[in-house]
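DEPOSITED CHAIN:
***
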Amino acid sequence: MPAEPVRNAWEEQWQTPTFEQLMALQKEQHVALLSTLLERLEAYDGIEKSLIWHGQSWKWTIQYTYASPDQAEAGDPPPTPVAYFVPNPESPVFCMPLRQEHLDQLPMKRLNRFIRDGIRSAKCAVEVHWAKWSPTAMTEVEHLTDLIKRRHKMLVGAAKAKSGAA
């Protein structure tokens, strides 16, 4: 009887991996870049991470959401997805879902080409543009960090406007 193929932690649907197990699957040259990017994202107020099975394409994915302090207390709608990290060992992907109103607020001409290309090539589904990047250099991580900062400001501003209107 042939042995069952060994599946890595990213692909094993029925066993929830740890973040460390997922990062251990990454190529050595990517680990520092991805760790820096994800640490910076997690440093923003209201950002929470969770590990979710997203089917055969994204498998185990780290989802980052934003919930304002008011939102958690008031029992408002679920937190807003900010970004996803798909720890595919062959090609890790950082994905940011952006609605048209978010795109309209971005200064596209001032954004780095790496960021613009990710946004322009984004597939649109259910009125959400799924921009994605696979950073391979620290400069690209810096540009993604700038985009994360801009997106966080949008979320905080929207939450303040909503709580002020209530």
Summary: Strands lie at 47-53, 60-66, 80-86, 93-99, 123-125, 128-133. The first strand starts at residue 47 and ends at 53. The chain has a mean pLDDT of 89.
